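Students often ask what a 'structure token' actually looks like in practice. Rather than answer in the abstract, let us consider TetR/AcrR family transcriptional regulator, a protein of 203 residues. Its sequence is given first.
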Amino acid sequence: MSGRKQFDVDTALDQAMRVFWERGYTDASLDVLGSATGLGRGSLYGTFGGKDALFRQCLDRYASTYGTRYEQALTTHAGDPVRAIEAFFDVVLARIADPSVPAGCLIAQSAAQAPILKGDNSAHVRTLLDTQRRRVRTALTGPSAAPEELADELATFVVAVNQSLAVLSRAGTTDTELRAVARLACQTVADTLRATPEHAACD
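Now compare that with the structural description of the same chain:
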């Protein structure tokens, strides 16, 4: 058994992800990470490559876990952009309301700290936000598609609202209030699409 890891790497990664999610990058010290995972500094470095490398792996794990849910919600209603955006926000609000996970969003938390992150991690956070925006942008295509420029703007708007919901939830905003924000965002998307010449011609 000598030289073999005596712990589950995925479990340790989940525990570390929770620390970054709750505390943010700055306050997630190696001591705190070690306490949460049960690993000493040597094991943290040996397994994950240090705090910055561990942080990046946690970002990827978070993005993979929730990104899959977003993707499924958005693609289930292909060709119906308004319903797709509603489904997207349903997933977002379900994550926020889940008592088993920290408040907010790891990516939103990390975006707020981007100026103090090392270059690679700061850029990676931006990449994850861009990935989310591309998913939403794709949902705005199809028979009811908006013009290219407008679809780009709407995708950015939806992602911005998503990040705002995460920040508001960490500040204690109620579920009712958060759902009102999401509902108004969906209504804005619907009204904006309805106002385009393509949709007006079909009315």
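One point worth highlighting: The chain is about 75% helix and 0% strand. Ask yourself how you might have guessed this from the sequence alone, and why that guess would often be unreliable.
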